[in-house]
Amino acid sequence: MITLHHIPFSRSFRILWLLEEMGLTCELKQYSITDGSLRAANFKAISPVGRVPALEIDGTTIYESGAIVEYLTETRPDLGLGRLPGDPERVAYLEWLGFAETQASILASLNMQHLFMGDPTPAAPVVLKLEAARLAATLKAMDRTLADRDWLLPSGFSAADTMMGFNLFSAPYYVKMDGFPNVLAYIERIKARKAYQDARELDGPQEFYKKDFYDVPQA
Ligand SMILES: N[C@@H](CCC(=O)N[C@@H](CS)C(=O)NCC(=O)O)C(=O)O
Prior knowledge:
It contains 8 helices and 4 strands; from the N terminus they run βαβαββαααααα. The chain is α+β, with helices and mostly antiparallel strands. The chain has 2 domains: 77 residues, Glutaredoxin, CATH 3.40.30.10; 104 residues, Glutathione S-transferase Yfyf (Class Pi), Chain A, domain 2, CATH 1.20.1050.10. The protein has a 4-stranded mixed β-sheet, covered by helices on one side. Helix 1 packs antiparallel against helix 6, helix 1 packs across helix 8 and helix 4 runs antiparallel to helix 5. The longest helix has 27 residues. It is globular. Glutathione binds next to helix 3. This is Glutathione S-transferase family protein. It comes from Shimia litoralis.
């Protein structure tokens, strides 16, 4: 039995999607970011600062999405979704796993300020502008990479795409995507994958974004 601790439209989607790509079924334990369930003592025993994803598997429990991805791909190498030591794409693969959190931390900052810090502490426009520009820079790097390939690594789809791909469903709330045509085409390729579609069915509706685009407010 595999158990995934999950919030719809959060980083735990990376793992839900990867499990679908691997043909592994899991039990989903659903949480909400706003109802206090992440702060409960029984969940903090699983994930010390109360964050998702956390995965119970093979008699152990792992938190941190990148660590979970590495564990899953390294313990199931026959499924071909990781790039193990010795693989010529190993370095690029590890870079994308880490870069996914560089990009996600910017998104988390934008989410925090646009969605969770309303009155009486309005977010600072200068910070929002800076974070949107930093997000655009990460999209530019992806767009350059995707100019000559379908997936982030030249040999084809990998778990790096589930780590990075998840971020791309939040980025358009903060950055106009028309400047990144290769990323837009990549998003369409992701949406066409059966495992992605099946994971979305299991995911449930997102509860964060209330409008299509969050612009930088005028100072
Ligand atoms: N680096 C961690 C970040 C996990 C994380 O921050 N998850 C968010 C959801 S996307 C969360 O659980 N936030 C709850 C909170 O901050 O209270 C990972 O990649 O797993």
